[in-house]
Amino acid sequence: MSAFVDGELTGTEMLAIRRHIGECPDCREEYESLRMTKHAVAMLRTVAPREDFAASILRNLDVVSIPPYQRFINVICKYAARKLSPVAAALAVSGLVLAILAAGGQDRVLVQKPDVVATAPFGMRAHDVSFMPTVPETPMMYSNTRPLVVADHAAANLYLADFSVR
Amino acid sequence: MEFADTVAEVARNEDRREFDQLVERYHKQAYNIAYRMAGNHADAEDLTQEAFIRAFRFFGQYRRELPFDSWLYKIMSNVFIDRLRRRPKVKIRSIDQPVTTDEGEAQFEIADPSDGPEDIVLSQEMDSRVQAALENLPEAFRITVIYADIEGLSYEEIAEATKTNIGTVRSRLHRGRRLLRDRLKKFEHQLL
């Protein structure tokens, strides 16, 4: 009913409700009460701020510090939006953000390398590989695991490390 | 590096000039909405200030082809909700508002040197009642009703400003108005 009061329905819906309200006293009462409520809120007087309020906002803006990365993103967004269509601008900005994140996300993840890789069939040692899972406490812990791919830098080869083979 | 700094500086100054004009143009409108959300002048000032500061921080991301006030209202809704979550459960009350007591509602009695005609007094009383009823609505309903009935935003614009969908706007508006109506029922004869 509120959507009818606001004229936010399709033409057909508006006509159907208008016809119904003409015939149904309860719905007519509901409609009138909601319309009056909307009117009461709409008629609220406009409250004005103090005279120097705009100046006070501007003074506060003088001391706002915008972090450099935010300024950079703002400048890029602004100029991208001017030169490109909204979709292209959004794609360009997303691409830029992804590129920044990707560049910043290249940090090496330190993985604790055990001295001996249990009894892996090829007898590799941890310092030979770029990634190695933690050594199982007991051989049975890996009994159901699937083979892992492990890089051997020295031999420039990839190996399958199957810990289920003991 | 110096060139990049100069470009950033020029862009910042250009933004600032443009933003200053927008502050001049929209601060009264924003303040009125903030007052209706917060219910008193002190909170309305804080809310408006914070909304403009946040808007300035992200001004580069404002799409110039859209109306600035819609974008500002979006920020203001967020600021309002954030502040409600942060603040202690102490309510600052405006002297314009009626006080609810065991014996019903009472008004602060403060001498007003600029007494007007009776209809102005009645209108101010009604204003206070509607404002008090608004403040008793859940925040999401209050924001939706204010945007629809005071600012006259469409459902689509409200959905955008409150980061929700049109169905939710429709439901919040309907439930909000029904709650308001129930609260204002005893003053129904004064509403029109």
Draw up the topology in text:
The complex is a heterodimer of chains A (166) and B (192).
Chain A: H1 2-5, H2 11-23, H3 25-42, H4 53-62, H5 68-83, H6 86-104, E1 148-152, E2 157-161
Antiparallel strand pairs in A: 1-2
Helix pairs in contact in A: 2-3, 5-6
Chain B: H1 2-38, H2 41-57, H3 68-86, E1 98-101, E2 104-107, H4 118-135, H5 139-150, H6 155-161, H7 166-184, H8 188-191
Antiparallel strand pairs in B: 1-2
Helix pairs in contact in B: 1-2, 1-3, 2-3, 3-6, 4-7, 5-7, 6-7
Features:
heterodimer, A: 166 residues, mainly alpha, two-stranded antiparallel sheet, 48% helix, B: 192 residues, 8 helices, 2 strands, elongated
Q: How would you characterize the largest beta sheet of chain A?
A: 2 strands, antiparallel
Helical percentage of chain B: 55-70%
Summing up helix and strand content along with how strands pair, one would put the structural category of chain A as: mainly alpha
- For the secondary structure, the number of strands of chain A is 2
Q: Which pair of chains forms the biggest interface, and how many residues does each contribute?
A: A-B, 42 and 58 residues
Helix/strand order of chain B = HHHEEHHHHH
* Biggest pleated sheet of chain B: 2 strands, antiparallel
Radius of gyration of chain B: 20 Å
User: Which stretches of chain A are low in confidence, meaning pLDDT under 50 for 5 or more residues running?
Assistant: 105-121, 126-152, 155-166
Measured between the Cα atoms of the first and last residue of chain B, the distance is 65 Å
Assembly form of the protein: heterodimer
Give the N-terminus to C-terminus distance of chain A in angstroms. Answer: 73 Å
In terms of structural class, how would the helical and strand content of chain B be classed? Answer: mainly alpha
User: Would you list the SSEs of chain A in sequence order as H and E?
Assistant: HHHHHHEE
Mean pLDDT of chain B: 79
How much strand of chain A? Answer: 5-15%
Number of helices of chain A: 6
β-strand number of chain B: 2
Bulk shape of chain B: elongated
| Helix share, percent of chain A | 40-55%
Low-confidence stretches of chain B: 108-115
